[in-house]
Write a structure and sequence with these properties.
binds heme C, mainly alpha, 8 helices, 48% helix
Length: 217
């Protein structure tokens, strides 16, 4: 029995793949007439204006693998650059169909179930660290002296992916934290101010002579 398992698996996987390919072909068959009407005059049937051919493929699967070609088509259709202005333009729903086809079948974007990707947990860069410390503890911390310059990505120093923490940098941050705490948090509890009034100021400076006024009571 077990010797059949690989075979059954193979048939199942092959069947799954070919049903995907069939679905792709069916989707392409709906789109191709739009491209034939509006593009192939100049980019098909042997025409390659702008060095761009759109029907130069053996199988639909191979065609859909050609990311660069479809990306160019997507850009030009989306921005209304093609067909050229003097030619009949795509109707809005035709344009939307072509774009949706490219997005789902070539770019593999699933509109129903979008995948936003992962979010990188990020640390502050030293500039952000400095200002946060200032806001929270009112300590003007010399971040530029203590922490090394942050790495940049795409020209920015706020990209989570490049703001990594090496063991050495971790030590720097611990050192920074100690310095900040030393400056920002008082270690000798609150001071109670003592003050004594001058007791002499309450004394009656007149001599012991009360002039008999007390007699009235
Ligand atoms: C009347 C002829 C004509 C039709 C129809 C036409 N194009 Fe073009 N296309 C051109 C010419 C000419 C160029 C080259 C000129 C240029 O690069 O500006 C070009 C260039 C392109 C390029 C290459 C642009 C680049 O940046 O290299 C793409 C992609 C393209 N067309 C896509 C399309 C698509 C998609 C359609 C149909 C929706 C279409 N074209 C319909 C004439 C046409």
């Amino acid at each position: 029995m077990s010797k059949y398992v690989p075979f059954i698996l193979f048939v199942a996987v092959a069947g799954f793949c070919s049903s995907l390919a069939v679905a792709d072909e069916a989707a392409f068959d709906k789109i191709e007439p739009i491209l034939m009407d509006h593009c192939y005059d100049c980019h098909g049937d042997g025409m390659g204006k702008g060095d761009f051919e759109m029907d130069n493929f053996e199988t639909v699967a191979e065609h859909l693998d050609n990311f660069d070609v479809w990306y160019e088509i997507w850009k030009n259709v989306r921005s209304n650059l093609m067909p050229p202005a003097h030619k009949t333009q795509l109707k809005t729903e035709e344009r939307e169909k072509v774009l949706a086809f490219i997005e789902s079948k070539v770019f593999k974007i699933d509109h129903e179930n979008p995948d936003p990707g992962r979010v990188t947990i990020r640390r502050m860069n030293r500039e952000e660290y400095r200002y946060t410390v200032k806001d929270l503890l009112d300590v003007d911390f010399p971040a530029y002296d203590v922490l090394p310059a942050d790495d940049t990505g795409y020209g920015f120093d706020t990209i989570g992916d490049v703001l990594s923490i090496s063991p050495l940098l971790m030590e720097k941050y611990l050192e920074a934290a100690e310095r900040v705490v030393k400056k920002g948090v008082p270690t000798n509890g609150p001071e109670i101010v003592e003050w004594w009034p001058n007791l002499d100021s309450f004394k009656d400076t007149r001599s012991g002579d009360w002039g008999g006024e007390l007699d009235a009571f």
